[in-house]
Specification:
With 397 residues, the protein is of the alpha/beta class. The chain contains 13 helices and 13 strands. It is globular. It binds nicotinamide-adenine-dinucleotide.
């Protein structure tokens, strides 16, 4: 269920490993694309896996589920854009896609089936899924229900699906054991057995760990800017300590994992998740801080030169060398300043964008001020002018 960044590579891998896979998605464009043997996401080697699976007939995608031995749910888990937790003033996770997918498979679930939730989920979601099945008439004592969070790195998915260690947690011991046996069939990493709740929290803790550590680097970057210290030099010196490993500052944190999942902890922690919450707010604030820095630089340029500068935003994606714009701070910053200043945008990894007229890198370089937001490999540190702004560590490339 869900033929996106996680569901499609998993389906294609299993289909190439001898499983008959029936993919399901709600998006007709995605269904048609995959059934032609093509892909709709950028991921190395995925096209080869999908093409061979579709050609051999072991992967077919439909709008509806069918009877199966194993059901896997890999649908989105964003947060509600219009609701806020009143106690913690934080976003509320949206598990509607999981509920919908679970209700859709319910009529096809029969005794002995294994139902797996792979979506990153708030603690308690696997139990909730079991209750949805129960309400829809499934005897949950006769099926196996478990959560196994996905921890692959986009750009490396086909390898990491096999090589990464996996945590598997069922709603009871027999579900855990059955699910672990399934994963051991294609995972070469260790398959670690736990409970559903612990498996859910493991994934949230992993992503919060990253967010908290990036927030520390981003906070340092703001402090250093204020007192006139080069933060990247500072971090490289601090990291010479044998037990210190400060991460790199950036213009914020994006993607639909690290910038979203820590809120799942905050939302369920009744005000106790203070570090996790502050990290989220610090990383979000960093993007607003960057906007202010750009505005100030533009004003200074105008004062010195007597005309308003053109600003080139270099990069829109949420990290280098990908085309994924979800929750991207670079996109947020570019949108904000484009309302105030003369802006051109360079994003070498996408052809068009609804809000921006994208220009080639060489054309962006002609702008009065280049603002480097994402350290794409095409961008060259030697091109930096004195007035340019580097928020992504281009100098380190
Ligand atoms: N992308 C990653 O790198 C990554 C890594 C680890 C975990 N995750 C988690 O995996 C889950 C899926 O993420 P993704 O990146 O694959 O999302 P995605 O948006 O790329 O794909 C999800 C797909 O599910 C489809 N869908 C939505 N509702 C559906 C329904 N009711 N039935 C069937 N299909 C439905 C959508 O059309 C979409 O194609 C999320 O919980 C995410 O947090 C993602």
């Amino acid at each position: 269920m869900g033929m996106g960044y996680i569901g499609l590579p998993t389906a294609a891998l299993l289909a190439n490993r001898g499983y008959q896979v029936h993919g399901v998605d709600v998006n007709h464009h995605i269904i048609d694309t995959i059934n032609r043997g093509e892909i709709h996401i950028v991921e190395p080697e995925l096209d080869i896996f999908v093409h061979s699976a579709v050609k051999s007939g072991s992967l077919v995608v439909h709008i509806r589920p069918t009877e199966a031995d194993v059901f896997m749910i890999a649908v989105p888990t964003p947060f509600h854009s219009d609701k806020v937790n009143e106690i913690t003033n934080s976003p509320i996770p949206n598990v509607d896609y999981i509920v919908d997918a679970t209700e859709k498979i319910a009529p096809y679930v029969k005794s002995g089936n294994l139902i797996l939730l792979e979506s990153t989920s708030p603690v308690g979601t696997t139990e909730m899924m079991a209750n949805v099945l129960k309400k829809k008439g499934v005897d949950i004592n006769t099926v196996f229900i478990a959560h196994s969070p996905e921890r692959v790195l986009p750009g490396n998915i086909m390898r990491e699906l096999i090589e990464n260690d996996r945590v598997v947690g069922g709603i009871n011991d027999k579900s855990t054991a059955h699910a672990a046996e399934f994963y051991r069939d294609f995972v070469e990493g260790e398959v670690l057995e736990s409970t559903a709740k612990t498996a859910e929290m493991t994934k949230l803790a992993e992503n919060s760990f990253r967010d908290v550590n990036i927030a520390f680097a981003n906070e340092l970057s703001i402090i250093c800017d204020d007192i006139g210290i080069d933060v990247r030099e500072l971090i490289s010196l601090a990291n010479k300590h044998p037990r210190v490993n400060v991460l790199s500052p950036s213009c914020g944190v994006g993607g639909h994992c690290i910038s979203v999942d820590p809120w799942f902890i905050v939302n369920s922690a009744n005000g106790v998740a203070k570090i996790v919450e502050q990290a989220r707010r610090t990383n979000d604030y960093k993007a607003d801080w960057v906007v202010e820095k750009i505005k100030k630089s533009a004003l200074k340029f105008e004062r010195n030169n007597g005309f308003r500068p053109t600003i080139a935003c270099m990069g829109l994606a949420f990290k280098p060398d990908i085309n994924d714009l979800r929750e991207s701070p670079a996109l947020y910053i570019s949108e904000k300043i484009s309302h105030l200043l003369n802006v051109v945008v360079v994003e070498p990894n996408i052809a068009t964008h609804d809000s921006f007229h994208l220009v080639p890198y060489e054309q962006g370089l002609q702008a009065d001020i280049c603002v480097y937001l994402v350290a794409h490999s095409q961008f060259d540190k030697l091109q930096l002018k004195a007035v340019d702004l580097d928020f992504c560590g281009l100098k380190e490339l």
